[in-house]
Design goal:
Elements: E1 2-6, H1 11-23, E2 27-32, H2 39-48, E3 52-55, H3 61-71, E4 75-78, H4 85-90, H5 92-112, E5 117-123, H6 147-164, E6 170-176, E7 178-180, E8 186-187, E9 190-191, H7 205-213, E10 219-223, E11 235-236, E12 238-240, H8 241-257, E13 261-265, E14 271-272, H9 273-284, E15 289-293, E16 302-303, H10 308-313, H11 323-336
Parallel strand pairs: 1-2, 1-4, 2-3, 4-5, 5-6, 6-13, 7-12, 10-15, 11-16
Antiparallel strand pairs: 8-9, 11-14
Helix pairs in contact: 1-2, 1-8, 3-5, 5-6, 7-9, 7-11, 9-11
Bound molecules: uridine-5'-diphosphate.
Residues 178, 203-205, 208, 221-223, 234, 236, 273, 296, 299, 303 line the site of uridine-5'-diphosphate.
Length: 337
């Protein structure tokens, strides 16, 4: 089986590529323009098993077409996209062009070159601000409140429309909640992640907390403690990137026997910002500086998945549903940089 992983040098794509290389014998091609992905990640992955790396931007439509016609992939797992919400509000076209237009072309080339399965990386941002503190199911109405979420929702519709007119083009769309943590690789009994999160600039909570614990930042700002939650800080459903990645591998086999579908990926439980901060303080025994500041624009109080659909329909089972595993692997990864 031939698999193309777009965005395989990025955070989530690299964990999926790593698992594909370690646990399958499929022929893997990674496509990445290295704009936010990292060449060192490619070098590290090459040490696991050989694969084909193509440095290419998806906006190069002709080259994408040639690659797909030449390689005749069976499966595409599509991660390549921009994902900074704040940036998407300042520069929406950047998001619509890369996330939606380039995805449209990729899908067009995929159907023409007879790709059979398309696994698409989407986001809980398609739901927008749900307002009620209840777990979000796939039936919750979609209502994105920023161009990032909208660019992904539009891509979801395009994947679905393409599949409607081609019985041989099946899809799984995954809507991710808050992905965190790093490779759970152990070397001499020590957790030693080989791949992990490297965003520049970093805006996500867990990497910022571990950077602060390591003294790479002076202070951790908590964006508001007057939300309608037990400790007043926002609650999110943090899912370990290794569990998120394994769902993609499972989706490949799932489509052999099942029809196309959309699944939330989360653990159906949430942690507050203060719980994350306290957990990192506890596991590192480092008492770093924390300050409560104004709310950040657009942050909903509560964003937690209802993951019953994926558990019911797919064989996927999480292995790292532990805040400690998430924070410890994020910390060890950051320490190694
Ligand atoms: N957050 C925070 N301080 C930070 C970064 C994030 O208090 O330096 C909070 C943010 O307000 C949100 C939660 O942490 O409630 C998760 O934010 P993140 O950016 O990681 O993910 P999001 O849920 O916004 O996609």
């Amino acid at each position: 089986m031939k698999i193309l992983v777009t965005g395989g040098a990025g955070y989530i794509g690299s964990h999926v590529a790593k698992q594909l290389l370690e646990t399958t014998t499929y022929q893997i091609t990674i496509l990445d323009n290295l704009s936010t992905g990292n060449i060192e990640t490619i070098d590290i992955l090459q040490k696991i098993r050989e694969f084909h790396f193509v440095k290419l931007d998806l906006k190069e439509f002709e080259k994408v077409k040639e690659l797909l016609e030449d390689k005749k992939f069976d499966v595409i797992i599509h991660f390549a996209a921009y994902s900074v919400v704040f940036e998407s509000m300042q520069n929406p076209m950047k998001y619509y062009l890369n996330n939606t237009v380039n995805t449209t072309n990729l899908i067009e080339c995929a159907t023409k070159s007879r790709v059979k399965k398309f696994i698409f990386s989407s986001t809980a941002a398609v739901y927008g601000d749900v307002k009620q503190n209840i777990n979000i199911s796939e039936n919750t109405p979609t209502n994105p409140i920023n161009p990032y979420g909208m660019s992904k929702l539009m891509s979801e519709k395009i994947v679905q429309d393409a599949s409607k007119v081609s019985n041989n083009f099946k899809y799984v769309i995954f809507r991710y909640f808050n992905v965190a943590g790093a490779d759970m690789y152990f070397s001499e009994n020590e957790l030693s992640p080989r791949v992990g999160e490297r965003h520049e600039p970093e805006t996500h909570l867990i990497p910022l907390v571990v950077k602060t614990a390591l003294g790479k930042r002076d202070i951790l700002n908590i964006y508001g403690e007057d939300f309608d939650t037990p400790d007043g800080t926002c609650i999110r459903d943090y899912i370990h990137v290794e569990d998120l990645a394994s769902a993609h591998i499972e989706a490949i086999d799932y489509l052999d026997e099942n029809s196309s579908d959309i699944f939330n990926l989360g653990y159906s439980r949430g942690f507050s910002v203060k719980e994350i901060v306290n957990n990192v303080k506890e596991i590192t025994s480092i008492n770093f500086k924390v300050e409560v500041v104004e709310r950040r624009e657009g942050d909903p109080a509560f964003l937690v998945a209802d993951n019953s659909k994926v558990l019911e329909k797919m064989k996927w089972r999480p292995k790292f549903d532990s805040l400690e595993a998430i924070c410890k692997s994020a910390y060890e990864w950051e320490k190694s940089l």
